[in-house]
From TrEMBL:
InterPro entries: Carb_Metab_HTH_regulators, DeoR-like_C, DeoR_HTH, NagB/RpiA_transferase-like, Tscrpt_reg_HTH_DeoR_CS, WH-like_DNA-bd_sf, WH_DNA-bd_sf. SMART domains: DeoRC, HTH_DEOR. Repressor of the lactose catabolism operon. Galactose-6-phosphate is the inducer. This is Lactose phosphotransferase system repressor. The lineage of its organism: Bacteria, Bacillati, Actinomycetota, Actinomycetes, Propionibacteriales.
């Protein structure tokens, strides 16, 4: 991982949790504590965090710009997206969650006869001119920073539909297989999506094992499949398999 990528991940983790210790960040990113200390000093000088004894504090609790997140681990996300899109048969219906990996799945669907339901405004822009795809946009409050729709109207819309597939994003997967998210406002929408789908597929690159997140989205038993990378933590993959989840490597 390049230093810039590692530092971006540090900033994301702090924004999600508010603060982070050197030891925890080093374990999450698989680098030495000395490396994390150097990164924190550089990020403090850049004004991207506040350095404190033993770790750092987030300087802004707001969401990251969508484009910034999209650029991180783009190659890995593309592989996962291609593998996920290949699961769907023409004529089927699918829900696409918010997030940048879901957008990449949408990019793989062009020209196919499918029904796509989403609360992701980036996916609306991607698919709106594709006449082969029946596109359904869920209502709700516009969360501009992450280009998504959330809230009661979004959840109520989901209670009125049912689809073949859900492709779900995550902030992190705990060692016991629990799916977590760092943004509380998105969690009720994700839970409603799970109830609205026959098959629930989690899209998670290797950095999401364990990843981060303070709110539980679902238990592993609520997942049908996880599409990830060979580098994803083996112990967590084993927990998922034992819970009856099919783990697919992209």
């Amino acid at each position: 991982m390049l230093p810039q990528q590692r530092q971006d991940q540090i900033v994301r983790a702090l924004r999600a949790d508010g603060a982070g210790g050197v030891k925890v960040l080093a374990a999450q990113l698989g680098v030495s504590e000395a490396t994390i200390r150097r990164d924190l000093e550089q990020l403090h000088e850049q004004g991207r965090l506040t350095r404190v004894y033993g770790g750092a504090l987030a300087v802004d609790g707001g969401d990251e710009p969508f484009a910034e997140v999209s650029a991180v681990h783009a190659t890995e996300k593309d592989r996962i997206a291609r593998r996920a899109a290949a699961l769907v048969t023409d004529g089927q219906s699918l829900l696409l969650d918010i997030g940048t990996t879901a957008l990449r799945v949408a990019q793989q669907l062009h020209g196919r006869s499918l029904t796509v339901v989403t609360s992701n405004l980036a996916i609306l822009e991607e698919l709106q001119n594709d006449e082969q795809i029946e596109l359904i946009i869920l209502g709700g409050f516009v969360r501009r920073s992450y280009r998504s729709l959330v809230g009661y109207l979004t959840e109520e819309s989901l209670r009125q539909i049912h689809v073949d597939w859900l492709f779900l994003g995550t902030s992190g997967v705990r060692p016991d297989g629990r799916v977590m998210d760092s943004t509380m406002i998105e969690v009720p929408v994700k839970r409603a999506m799970i109830k609205a789908a026959d098959k629930v597929v989690l899209l998670a690159d290797a950095t999401k094992f364990p990843g981060h997140g303070v709110a539980k989205v679902c238990e592993p038993t609520e997942l049908s499949m996880v599409v990830t990378e060979p580098a994803a933590d083996q112990a967590t993959r084993t927990q998922l398999t034992e819970a009856g989840v099919e783990v697919v490597l992209a």
